[in-house]
Design brief:
The chain has helices spanning 29-35, 66-93, 110-130, 134-139, 154-166, 172-180, 189-194; strands spanning 99-102, 105-108, 141-145, 196-200. By secondary structure, it is mostly helical. 20% of the residues are buried.
């Protein structure tokens, strides 16, 4: 057969240069398990981040990064400080003493500490009931239970107590826990002891939505 009589496949058109049906390589099960612990869903829908490795109800969820978590915490502190300042101002209008004389100047009175404590308890109750802090809600950082699909509840209170204990000695133990005990789900030792996980619901699925 002459070269002119042989049949050659048609050249791809410029509009679709990859029109041929070439076989696609598929990973073997052992490779998929090694590189994708949750199979083909190891990345959340849209590929915005690695999934949580854990219970089924957290499939498609993305753990919050350390940087975003620290930023959300700073934002929470600013908002809570502002609300506390407003509450102290309102208390002053009703004649509640906010400062008292001390040997080295003015210090906050017991009433002022009580106002700040009430504000903190209100925000803690909101977090326990919804998983949101005020600033965290703005940036999509939500706290949920790890072992079951529910809000933190009493776990949020336990976490705050443990964080408070770790805050002694100028917060050095707390800093060590937060930065040195993180696992593959970005949970540090206090998170694990409280059975909670902090999620980035802007990058992955919100299990409580």
């Amino acid at each position: 057969m002459s070269p002119s009589e042989r049949h050659y496949p048609a050249a791809p058109t410029p509009s679709d240069p990859y029109q041929h049906d070439y076989p696609r390589a598929q990973p073997t099960p052992d490779v998929a398990a090694a590189y994708m612990p949750h199979g083909y869903g190891a990345y959340a829908a849209g590929g915005f981040g690695p999934q949580v490795i854990g219970p089924e109800h957290l499939n498609g969820c993305v753990p919050v990064s350390l940087g975003k978590r620290v930023g959300a915490r700073l934002l929470d502190s600013m908002i809570m400080g502002f609300v506390t300042g407003v509450a102290l101002g309102v208390a002053a209008l009703f004649g509640i003493p906010l400062e008292e004389s001390a040997a080295f100047g003015e210090t906050a009175s017991l009433e002022a500490y009580l106002v700040g404590g009430v504000v903190s308890l209100v925000f803690l109750a909101i977090n326990a009931a919804t998983g949101w802090w005020p600033g965290s809600r703005l940036v999509g950082v939500r706290t949920v239970a790890f072992s079951e699909p529910s809000v933190p509840g009493g776990r949020a209170v336990g976490k705050q107590l443990l964080s408070g204990l770790a805050g002694f000695f100028f917060y050095i133990p707390w800093l060590i826990i937060v930065f040195a005990t993180r696992d593959e789900n970005e949970r540090h030792a206090i998170d694990r002891a409280s059975n909670i996980i902090v999620l980035d619901v802007k990058r992955g699925r919100d299990p409580l939505a």
